[in-house]
């Protein structure tokens, strides 16, 4: 269907300064409204005083002659607009007939001002996903194609703000003056533009940084059942970037508003909100907004990537994103496949996560590190969406419900978790101290099963069990209390040097907390030196030994006082 409208080009009337001073605003408005010389003069005579008529007569004559001259120069222009009519609307989806020239992802406007995006093209109709409320839209209403694709604002002005998937602020009314607007869809950088991941991104979680190191530009999947601490791991990673210069983007997909607000409050309390963009789509938003949310977040992150900066982006979570896309696809009458998901569900996640990478220095040297989250059912990591995401990402952290209930937090299952980047993303100092830590924990798990049945073990095995228990207690961590790189090195060095061996297992946590306080207050210079060095030099190890000996003496004094 086509609609034709004729517009007349408007020309401004230019007056000299003397004429502008002489001619009142009311006279100008009257000149715009009248259509004939006689009616114009009569209106002036009625409004003006008799003694002032002659004074304005020449000005009026000039205005009329200018208007007549300009009107003769106006050329009519015909403009064609592609329109359609609404057939059906509801559940966030509209079916429209007409729109013969519309394309995929094109924006269409409804009479209420709400926009829709074309997602299905058929010979006789077009299916649109609604980017707002469908209230007030009825069958037969005309819709108009814009010829534009969806864009979102990007730039450093978004840092510290909470926006919806369209980039509109929802935290306060202050308008965001973005650096530019970008399309949501973009082809991921090619292999030639990338460089290997070999620089660490410390998450502040000891178990991750020691056993499953994450590099800048990596994609590490976080898996687990509900209420097992998945979001906590991701938020701690954001908190640990406070003084590193890494920009952060947190994307909430289909989460309860109370959960997202709790995350925002934590970021503000820890003073990292000014370095973070929060893209929020709640469970009561239209499915189109939940579907577009991760792409909007990735587009905002790519702005910093193009500036040569490092970015950490969290998708919480992609299981709900897959559910939103399944809902849209079924409403659009696309054929369902496995578990009713459409056939391109793998593609929509791969084209998102492939945009996370590390670029060569010749291309800016920036990076995007992605931490996607997925929810499992009863610990089943072989489900459809889960296996898709595992095959796309560079490793996974599997959270176990039983470990969580046993107060082993973070409840990361060491046997099923892996980082495919491995030691390449670890500093040499960390790599040296970690050594066979993961192997020792795996062996401890196997031996520990026998002790459950009362099996007698020899002295060597008993020492192995005690060492494993101490390691697990050391790797425990309170939420929202990330460890710095220097403090992680101190704890690992103390573990390898045997300082934890004589500490009762029940006192390991207190010993570690006292160790941290001691170094923060008395050995701050040593912590700075550790952070600057990539290797543990002989001078640093000597200082560490001296500081740990002083702490052990301090620990004994505290114990005597408590007794």
From TrEMBL:
Gene3D superfamilies xref list: 2.40.30.20, ATP synthase alpha/beta chain, C-terminal domain (1.20.150.20), P-loop containing nucleotide triphosphate hydrolases (3.40.50.300)
SUPFAM superfamilies tied to this protein: C-terminal domain of alpha and beta subunits of F1 ATP synthase, N-terminal domain of alpha and beta subunits of F1 ATP synthase, P-loop containing nucleoside triphosphate hydrolases
Top EC category: translocase
Enzyme Commission number: 7.1.2.2
Protein's membrane topology: Peripheral membrane protein
Positions of the ATPase F1/V1/A1 complex alpha/beta subunit N-terminal domain: 83-147
Spans through the membrane: none
Catalytic activity field: ATP + H2O + 4 H(+)(in) = ADP + phosphate + 5 H(+)(out)
GO MF annotation list: ADP binding; ATP binding; hydrolase activity; proton-transporting ATP synthase activity, rotational mechanism
Residues holding ATP: 224-231
Keyword Heme: no
Gene Ontology cellular-component annotations: plasma membrane; proton-transporting ATP synthase complex
ATPase F1/V1/A1 complex alpha/beta subunit nucleotide-binding domain sequence ranges: 204-419
The family this protein is said to belong to: Belongs to the ATPase alpha/beta chains family.
Protein's name in the database: ATP synthase subunit alpha
């Amino acid at each position: 269907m086509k609609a034709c409208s004729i517009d007349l080009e408007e020309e401004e009337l230019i007056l000299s300064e003397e004429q502008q001073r002489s001619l009142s605003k009311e006279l100008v408005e009257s000149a715009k409204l009248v259509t004939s010389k006689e009616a114009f003069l009569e209106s002036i005579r009625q409004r003006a005083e008799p003694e002032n008529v002659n004074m304005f007569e020449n000005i009026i004559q000039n205005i009329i002659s200018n208007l007549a001259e300009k009107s003769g120069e106006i050329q009519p222009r015909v403009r064609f607009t592609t329109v359609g009519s609404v057939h059906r609307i509801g559940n966030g989806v509209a079916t429209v007939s007409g729109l013969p020239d519309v394309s995929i992802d094109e924006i269409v406007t409804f009479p209420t001002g709400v926009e829709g995006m074309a997602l299905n093209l058929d010979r006789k109709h077009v299916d649109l996903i609604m980017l707002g409320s469908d209230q007030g839209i009825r069958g037969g209403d005309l819709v108009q194609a814009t010829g534009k694709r969806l864009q979102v604002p990007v730039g450093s002005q978004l840092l510290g703000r909470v926006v919806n998937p369209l980039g509109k602020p929802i935290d306060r009314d202050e308008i965001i003056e973005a650096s530019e607007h970008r399309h949501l869809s973009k082809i991921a950088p090619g292999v030639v533009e990338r460089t290997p991941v070999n620089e660490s991104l410390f998450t502040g979680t000891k178990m991750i940084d020691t056993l499953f190191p994450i590099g800048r530009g990596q994609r590490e999947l976080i898996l687990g059942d509900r209420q097992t601490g998945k979001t906590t791991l991701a938020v701690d990673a954001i908190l640990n970037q406070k003084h590193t210069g890494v920009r952060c983007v947190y994307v909430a997909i289909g989460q309860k508003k109370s959960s997202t607000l709790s995350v925002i409050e934590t970021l503000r309390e820890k003073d990292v909100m000014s370095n973070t963009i929060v893209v929020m789509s709640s469970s009561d938003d239209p499915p189109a907004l939940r579907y577009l949310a991760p792409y909007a977040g990735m587009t905002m992150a790519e702005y910093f990537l193009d500036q040569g900066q490092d970015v950490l982006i969290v998708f919480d979570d992609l299981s709900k994103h897959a559910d939103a896309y399944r809902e849209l696809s079924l409403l659009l009458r696309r054929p369902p496949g496995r578990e009713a998901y459409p056939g391109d569900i793998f593609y929509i996640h791969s084209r998102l996560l492939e945009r996370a990478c590390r670029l060569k220095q010749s291309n800016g040297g920036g990076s995007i590190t992605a931490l996607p989250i997925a929810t499992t059912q009863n610990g089943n990591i072989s489900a459809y969406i889960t296996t898709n995401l595992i095959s796309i990402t560079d490793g996974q952290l599997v959270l176990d419900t039983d470990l969580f209930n046993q107060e082993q937090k973070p409840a990361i299952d060491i046997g099923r978790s892996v980082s495919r980047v491995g030691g390449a993303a670890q500093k040499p100092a960390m790599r040296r101290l970690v050594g066979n830590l993961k192997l020792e924990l795996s062996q401890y798990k196997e031996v520990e099963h026998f002790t459950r049945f009362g099996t007698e073990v020899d002295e060597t095995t008993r020492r192995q069990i005690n060492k494993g228990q101490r390691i697990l207690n050391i790797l425990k961590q309170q939420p929202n209390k990330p460890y710095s790189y220097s403090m992680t090195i101190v704890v690992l060095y103390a573990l390898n040097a045997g300082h934890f061996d004589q500490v009762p297992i029940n006192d390991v946590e207190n010993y570690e907390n006292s160790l941290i306080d001691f170094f923060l207050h008395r050995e701050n210079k040593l912590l700075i030196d550790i952070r600057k060095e990539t290797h543990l030099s002989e001078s640093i190890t000597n200082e560490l030994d001296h500081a740990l000996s002083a702490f052990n003496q301090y620990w004994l004094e505290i114990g005597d006082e408590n007794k």
